[in-house]
Structure formats: structure tokens, C-alpha cells
User: What shape does this take?
Amino acid sequence: MPIPISARPANLAALDTPLLALALADGAALTSDLAPIDAATGGALGRALTTRDFRAGRDELLFLAGGAAGIRRVLLVGMGRVAPRTDALRRAAMLAARQAGGLGAGSVTFHAGALTAADAEAVTLGLIAGSWRYDDVKTPPPAAEQRAPLTEGVVLGSDLAAAEQGVAAGVAIGAGHSLARTLGMMPGNLCTPDFLAETARDIAKRHGMPCTVLGRAEMEKEGMGSFLSVAQGSPEDPKLIVLEYRKGPRGGKPVVLVGKGLCFDSGGISIKPAQSMEWMKYDMCGAAGVLGAMEAIGRLGLHVNVVGLVGSTTNMPSGTAVKPGDVVKSHLGKYIEIINTDAEGRLVLADVLSYARRFDPAAV
Assistant: This one.
């Protein structure tokens, strides 16, 4: 889950932080509101801007030493020619969080002048993206090389209500982003159809969503011969995952999100080249996107009707795998001749999209 993010008043004179990230646009100059930061750096901020040692170009970074108390370090982050502002803020915050993590600062405070709610949301998303890590399957480095993880982000805003509103939205959306990124990065032996189903059940439990999971037997009863043809080469039970979020108009047609969840795609009998095959763990990123979206929607409490569908299996060669030339019957009742077993995505999604019709969707 993302690091905690909070909004606080932009009282720079009383600020106490190990690292202040100051985002500036191209052509920035020292203004009166930045005087407390200039004082904390012994005038280094003003000199850097006056001499153009820091031009605030896109992705430009400059560290300045602060005092023993108050603002202890300052990181200047360039946003370049700001257009649109939210994109520039998101990127600047992401860079700031990455730098803070590399320093072992523990906490980072982000300041970019006056922020609207949309600005604060963008900053929050950037801080969450920059602090996200997937270290679950990495051997820890020696203790002497370890850095303190980034555990807190603070967004400063002169309009505190707007900043708090934006941060709350950013935290909700960022949680969905982080979940999707984590699922996408997991190796295929850990992120299995069973694991995706369990993840969906966790989302359902957190947000009060009905969740239905169909396995091989249930899909056989549904007549999902297209989906099951991909799954027949693997001993892992395939899963059709259904998450329903119904907080929109009663009886209103839902938007249906459909995600492909191939936890590993070898190509099957029409096997892929060995080089870079390990990247095929990413063939479930559609599923990760759907589950991340449902997590974000649940946290935001949106007044909408949304159904998330995930078709998950693995495409593997074996003595039971589907073969080129085989003919299967889809959920829709159409017959499909399989010429290349590496076309597994359309075989899975054909049945999932057909299944989606029962929800009478407004859009898919």
C-alpha cells in the first residue's frame, strides 16, 4: 500500500522537515514567499536562481543544505515550461520521492506554491508513484548499504481545504495504481489465477462489493470452450473473476471493465522464442489494471455502477494443450479454428466479453 500522505498549511517559517522539495517552473525567481527557504539555506536558494545555476528546466535537480533544525535539506525540482500544470507537478513529485528514498530521508515535504485540489491530487499521485517499490522477492543488501525507506509525504497548500480534498483523491487513486504495479511486477509463479482471485476477494471485502469467481467446472457449465482451450495445457485452475460496484443509479447500466489475466504466456504449442520470454509475466497487466481500478473506485466511493471482469489462466505447452488446427466452441456459440495457439488473448477475451453481455453494459 502507498506511503501515508497528508496536507498541511504552507507555513514555511515554522516548517520542520528532513527534506523540502521545492518545485519551480522555468524562469523562476526568488519571491517573498520563498524567503524562509532562502534563509534556511543561508541564501543559497537566491544565489542559485540569480546566477541561473538552477534554471528550473524539466527534471532538473539541485540539492541545497539547510540548517540543523527546521528545513534540513532542500531539493529544487525543475518543472520546465508548465503545460499542463498537473502533469508537471505529478512528475516533479515523483522525482522528489525517488530522490528522498535514495537519500534515506524518511519523509519528504513538497511545496509548489498555491495548489488547487487537482494540483494536490497530482502531487499526491507523484509522491506515491515515486515511493512505490517492489522488493518482496529481492535479497536485502548488507545492513551498511541499506537506506531508511520513505515512510511519509507531506503536501503544503495555502488553501488547506483544497489540498486535503486533492490529497484524499490522490491517495485513493494511488492505492489503485500501486496495487496494479505490484501485481504486474510479481513473477508468474506467485501471481497465479488463484492469487488474482484472492486479491479480488480482498478488494470486495474492503469495499463491500459482491465478488464471484468461476473456476474450470463453472466455466464448463457456461460453455466457455474458447477460454478453456487456453487453460487446458496448465494444471492451474483458470478463473473468471467478477467484481460488482453498485453505487450509481438503481438499475442503471454499468460500465464493464474487462482485463486479460494471462499470468504467463509461453505461446503454448506455438511456443515463443526463448529470448525475453520472461517478459510474458506481464501478460496479466490488463487484469492488474482492472483490479487496481476497482480498488480506486471503492476507495473514492464514486456514485457509479461498474463491473470488473478478469479472465485469468496460463498459456502453457503440454500433452493436454490445445493444438494448431483444433476447433473449439465459444460462449457465444461460434466455432473457432485455432491456427496459432499464441493467439490466446483473443480466445480468453472472446468468452469474457460474451459473458459481459449479461450485465447489459452502458459501455465496455
Summary: The two ends are 28 Å apart (CA to CA). The mean pLDDT is 96.
